[in-house]
Specification:
11% strand, two-stranded parallel sheet, single chain, alpha/beta, 283 residues, 50% helix
């Protein structure tokens, strides 16, 4: 009887598992710091918007205040995440400094700060595409955006990711630019920028999202058939505003890229002399 009982207990013990609980915690040291010791406004950060600060104040609840993410580097406390919260706290305190909880990291380089900032804001969905792209460039961790920036600047343009001014040679249509790069790859993307510069010399209307989308599709479709010199000669006589106006009038397709690529084809073929391109768009 006792032997059977022992065997039964052994079977029970064999089936049992020991539950080991692992404790997880955030890295970094939790400290309370006055806001005047925090350095913010780094190039990788989105600017503080007054309307966002006021909106934050309207919804403010002290129970929801999380520690700010701070990097201690070169003897300074760099505020990575929490600029709007600091601005809101100061405003609610009549403009005076306040003491805030901070999660402080001691092992971050500038590039790692930018990378962490991009991850935090992406998780919270607070940044625009241009702002997140700027953070990726500052982090130096994304080969695609770094190559895009190199080609943009190589061809005489400025990628306006933070404060667009509408000046010549300034590209602010980030989504269209990224889509063009992914459609064309490096060599033809470089070619597109070179043609844009040579044809319209940085005119703001030539760098709008619709124009970039149309140019990318036009080059992708005609590639080796397209003569660069002929394109520059023929299209430089056309105001980009006319191309935009004509593209808006095409209601036969919902594709913005196709609308403007068609206009580019029409203008390229409008000369009496010279080789004309056949219609090859997949519609």
């Amino acid at each position: 009887m006792s032997n059977r009982k022992k065997r039964h207990n052994k079977k029970q013990n064999k089936g049992q598992q020991t539950l080991i609980l692992k404790e997880y915690s955030s890295s970094g040291e939790l400290r309370f710091l006055p806001t005047d010791r925090l350095t913010s406004g780094q190039p990788y950060q989105r600017p503080v918007e007054e309307k966002d600060v006021d909106d934050l104040i309207r919804k403010w609840d002290d129970r929801l205040l999380k520690p700010l993410i701070v990097s201690f580097r070169d003897g300074h406390f760099y505020l990575i995440d929490g600029q709007h919260r600091v601005a809101a706290l100061r405003k609610m305190n009549g403009g005076a400094e306040v003491i805030v909880p901070c999660q402080i990291h001691n092992d971050l380089t500038y590039e790692k700060e930018a990378e962490l900032y991009a991850k935090l804001d992406k998780a919270n969905k607070r940044m625009t595409l241009s702002q997140s792209t700027n953070a990726l460039i500052e982090s130096g961790q994304n080969a695609e955006v770094l190559e895009m920036k190199r080609l943009v600047e190589k061809n005489g343009f400025h990628w306006a990711l933070t404060t667009p001014t509408g000046k010549a040679y300034e590209i602010s249509a980030t989504r269209a630019l990224i889509n063009a790069y992914r459609l064309l790859s490096g060599a033809n993307f470089d070619r597109m920028l070179r043609l844009l510069n040579s044809t319209w010399h940085g005119a703001p209307n030539s760098l709008r999202a619709a124009m970039l989308s149309g140019m990318a599709l036009f080059l992708k479709t005609y590639d080796t058939e397209l003569d660069n010199a002929a394109f520059v000669k023929r299209l430089s006589a056309v105001d980009p505003e006319e191309i935009i106006r004509r593209g808006k009038l095409d209601f036969s397709t919902s594709s913005i890229a196709l609308r403007y690529a068609r206009v580019l084809l029409e203008k390229y073929n409008s000369q009496r002399r010279g080789k004309k391109l056949p219609y090859r768009f997949n519609t």
